[in-house]
User: What shape does this take?
Amino acid sequence: MTSKILTRLICSLCLAVSGLSLAPNTADAKDKLVKDLPSEKDFRKALLKVMKSYPADGTHRYYWPRGGKWKGNIADLVYKGKVIAKGDEKGRAFCCGLTFEVFFLAYEKCMKAKKKDFQIGDLDEKGVLKLISAWFGSDGNRRCSQNAIIKYGLGRVITNLKDARPGDFVQFWRHSKSGHSVVFVGWEKDKQGKIVGIRYWSTQKSTKGIGQRMEKIGPKGVKLDEIYIARVGKQ
Assistant: This one.
């Protein structure tokens, strides 16, 4: 066994034992934040308000066609006067489409509160489309929303599970090899205070569309070493 492989195994074992720290992509973590970025506090406040505006009664059902040009969002997303993502006529959405939608609308709300034109970093229309692509993991990066937020200087990686707060964006993967794009709500803990599950807001079949859900972390659930958390805004 080479030393490189051994080191990776040891790191993975330490992660599994602690259940607390997730290593960031160090190259991405060095990226600088863009100008006129909302504060973390302001963005979180706007995001949670936007999320509450969506009914969790099955109005907006989960739908994932696994193909086509539809970006999985409910509302038309308009950037600089152009529709960059057409909303679904039936009000349906899939996970990464919905999480990007609430990110987009919360960012717009923050800019409006500052009485500034809606501008995400230095991105033009094509740039926002690239942001969406990264958010969806179309480039093959499994960190998805975390990768997109860091790549375009829109926030920071949360490396310690204990530091996660409601309103953080999360991409996680399950042992079944399926994944999910969500907004963090809280941790589920056992009597000893150990994190054993994640509570989140997104859209999924189990909640008949938009709603909150809890999933267990473990061999039959979410992979501990593939929970990627990011927070939008400046500290």
In short: Residues 21-232 form one domain. DSSP finds six helices and eight strands in the chain.
